[in-house]
Specification:
Order of helices and strands: HHHHHHEHEHEHEHEEEHEEH
Strand order of the largest sheet: 1-9-8-2-5-3-4
Structural class: alpha/beta
């Protein structure tokens, strides 16, 4: 059982590591600049510390089965997310029946539960060789692009087990930095940061990482990018995504166009036997240098992600508020 003292000690350890860690971007520069820890964040963190040891202790098949059960059941405890997922799926596949939509959403929650469990066990995957769990196709494309020594961008989305790259690529000798937005709960964020960087990958803060991203590319690293989340303008444009308008950032597209950085679409889907099928497509070098080319290229990358999702829609993040309206206010008269 987690005592109050144990929780406080764990929290203090996280804070100390966040301030003193010299790896990658510091999660916080000083204790003064840390955002306050809300009571609900403490509860979430306590729940994580209570559940994680069991999940990590169980054999992988049992842990994934537990994630499958909890994930499926969780849709009834998060009705707003369930309804959002139902609405998103219904609009993405208008020809589907209500039964088909409900079945996919159920499977979606189950798959996300399994991914959450696998993420908590990510640093334990090293007990096996990558080929034991992953069927990876297209590594030759990545090696060829890395040989150009300009860095590469690995384009992906919240599909399947998207955290797999933090294990697979460093283990195979590919230096990897992932772009991610920190969680609101900094205690949980720091806990997961340690797991995600266990094999040598680093996490770059998407909110203030432009210069750091360019430096990483110039160092010949691979940059992992999930390009399927909402981003409000400025710095984002509307694209067509599953037949609806959605905003997406143009920052990476612009960077790839300006510096001719190769982009390799990279995805990882869970198979029925709980192994993974991962594939890396040939490199894409975006052309053009104006706003029209920027829009066309951003749409092109979005199309690639949609095509990957359509291979197994049940493994995408349908409960995300992907199709939002712009927050930009109209000019005042």
């Amino acid at each position: 059982m987690l005592t109050r003292r144990a929780l406080h000690q764990a929290e203090q350890r996280i804070q100390d590591e966040s301030v003193c860690s010299g790896k990658g971007e510091k999660l916080q520069k000083t204790a003064k600049k840390m955002k306050p820890v809300l009571f609900k964040h403490r509860l979430e963190y306590a729940a994580l510390l209570g559940a994680a040891p069991l999940i990590r202790w169980l054999p992988r098949p049992l842990a994934l089965r537990l994630g499958h059960i909890i994930g499926g059941a969780s849709r009834w405890f998060f009705p707003l997310r369930r309804r959002l997922a139902m609405d998103n799926v219904r609009q993405a596949f208008p020809a589907w029946s209500d039964e088909q939509v409900a079945a996919l959403v159920k499977r979606n929650f189950e798959q996300l539960g399994m991914s959450a469990v696998e993420s908590l066990r990510l640093d334990l995957l090293g007990q096996q060789q990558p080929e034991e769990l992953f069927d990876i196709r297209g590594m030759e494309h990545l090696h060829e692009a890395m040989a150009q020594q300009r860095g590469v961008i690995l384009l992906t989305g919240h599909l399947g087990f998207w955290e797999a790259g933090n294990y697979v690529f460093p283990t195979l000798g590919i230096p990897l930095d992932n772009i991610a937005k920190p969680l609101k709960n900094r205690l949980t964020d720091a806990y997961l940061y340690r797991i995600r960087t266990h094999y040598g990958a680093d996490i770059l803060n998407s909110r203030k990482g432009a210069r750091r991203i360019l430096k990483s590319l110039q160092s010949g690293h691979a940059i992992g990018l999930l390009l399927d989340q909402h981003m409000s303008p400025p710095g984002a444009i509307q694209v067509d995504f599953f037949g609806r308008k959605a905003y997406v950032t143009t920052a990476i597209t612009n960077l790839a166009m300006k510096y001719q950085i190769p982009i390799l679409p990279t995805f990882c889907l869970r198979q029925p036997d709980n192994r993974y099928q991962a594939w890396i497509d040939p490199p894409i070098v975006l052309q053009g240098d104006d706003e029209t080319a920027l829009a066309e290229n951003t749409q092109y990358l979005t199309n690639i992600i949609e095509q990957a999702i359509r291979r197994d829609p049940g493994q995408w993040f349908w409960m995300h508020k992907r199709w939002r309206q712009s927050k930009i206010k109209p000019p005042q008269d």
